[in-house]
Design a protein that fits this description.
Layout (H helix, E strand, L loop, with lengths): L6 E4 L6 H13 L2 H14 L6 E6 L5 E9 L5 H12 L9 E9 L8 H11 L5 E7 L4 H8 L3 E7 L8 E7 L7
Parallel strand pairs: 4-5
Antiparallel strand pairs: 1-2, 2-3, 3-4, 5-7, 6-7
Helix pairs in contact: 1-2
The structure holds coenzyme A (COA).
Enzyme class: transferase
Keywords: Acyltransferase, Transferase
Protein name: GNAT family N-acetyltransferase
């Protein structure tokens, strides 16, 4: 990665949930009401079996970005929403033996320096599962470009989550993630 001053390491995200959501709010766009809802969800997610989080920290201790995820559990809300879409495409088996990237966000001040790439490769390298899945807004975004470059392909598109106005794509990749040549 370009910026050697930013350190990627495991982070106690529950203790730093407000800082993380402040990063997500500006990176992804969340209003105060959405942050309040997300706060409960993130704290619950972090109690899930196998949940892990990594942070990107500046020399002065600021959180520049974070990622967290967990082994997929078919009983989790996210999995139940995406399952029929994956099944329709013959891809439902991706819900088993998969590490889910639940959130990945880098503060705009620190984007484009390889931080996002290092966060997602570091957390997935720590998983013994054979593959990874995630959902991203179904548009040509930097996130979609990053995921494709790591080997993620589309497993389902135009996926609608209740309460989310925009459709998502579900993507999956074999682990370990592909490295740049
Ligand atoms: C997606 C995100 C996490 C990437 O983090 P980042 O630190 O900026 O990404 P990196 O610097 O590691 O870039 C990795 C790759 O992303 C893609 N990428 C990054 N910025 C891009 C841009 N402006 N346009 C197109 N692709 C871009 C490229 O494929 C890049 O690979 P390269 O370095 O070989 O060019 C960050 O843009 C972000 O937080 N976005 C807003 C929140 C979000 O969408 N999160 C994901 C939710 S699913």
């Amino acid at each position: 990665m370009d910026d050697t001053e930013i350190v990627i390491a495991p982070v106690n995200l529950a203790a730093r949930v407000d800082e993380a959501l402040a990063v997500q709010a500006v990176a992804f766009g969340l209003d105060a009401a959405e942050v309040a809802v997300r706060r409960h969800i993130v704290l619950r997610h972090l109690l899930s079996p196998g949940a892990r989080a990594y942070g990107a920290t500046t020399p002065d201790g600021r959180l520049a970005g974070f990622v967290y995820g967990m082994p997929n559990d078919r009983s989790h809300w996210w999995s139940t929403v995406v399952e029929p879409y994956l099944r329709a495409e013959g891809n439902a088996e991706w819900l088993d033996g998969s590490f889910v990237i639940t959130e990945l966000h880098v503060h705009p001040d620190f984007q484009g320096r390889g931080v996002g790439r290092e966060l997602i490769t570091t957390i997935t390298d720590g998983s013994e599962l054979p593959r990874s899945i995630l959902s991203a807004i179904d548009t040509e975004s930097p996130a979609r470009g990053l995921y494709r470059s790591l080997g993620y392909t589309d497993l389902a598109r135009r996926v609608h989550f209740p309460s989310a106005p925009r459709p998502y794509a579900v993507m999956g990749a074999p682990l370990p993630l592909r490295r740049r040549n």
